[in-house]
Predict the structure.
Amino acid sequence: DIVMTQSPDSLAVSLGERAIINCKSSQSLLYSSNNKNYLAWYQQKPGQPPNLLIYWASTRQSGVPDRISGSGSGTNFTLTITSLQAEDAAIYYCQQYYTASLLTFGGGTKVEIK
Amino acid sequence: QVQLQESGPGLVKPSQTLSLTCTVSGAAIGSGGHYWNWIRQHPGKGLEWIGYIYSSGNTYYNPSLKSRLTMSVDTSNNHFSLTLTSVTPADTAVYFCARDGGYCGSTSCHYFDYWGRGTLVTVSS
């Protein structure tokens, strides 16, 4: 199984400041034949399903504001929210789809407004 | 607009069978190109992928649930289903159905672009 580890578990950020969430995979998510990283990011607010933000580690889903971005390759990935807004308060999850027979998520990172 | 809606009993007794259905609108399961997934979230916890099914009926299950799990698809009525046998309180969770990206050119892209709102299933006597 590919284990996904997120850090920190939670963080509090002031409005307008930057939030950085890390995700580490137990093995590389970079597929050499197409040079793609099989990693996605989601945002989940209370009482709602997760919402896809990023796929292929850095491709923004339609409608996602450009203050939210993904980066990284191999085993280390980052979700960055610049200029944090009140509506960004949520739990964020990373997910690997490199192993199609067993899809796995990180444990989540809770972003709160300071 | 693709929409998914879970349905099924909210309370199941221990040792019994949990059955849920996900009805899809705005997309035809039978047209292929996407996989149809079940994902669960234990109260206050993270996300656990349960398994997926293709329009052909091909399935992949999480090995941790495989012995108790069956998924099926009904392309005529545009829904897919989950059956989990011998449930225990540890199966108490919000169950989501979700569509994944399916086939993206020469590769598969199993990230989840559309989700149902989820249904809470409690296992208790």
Summary: The radius of gyration of chain A is 13 Å. The CA atoms of residues 45 and 90 of chain A lie 5 Å apart.
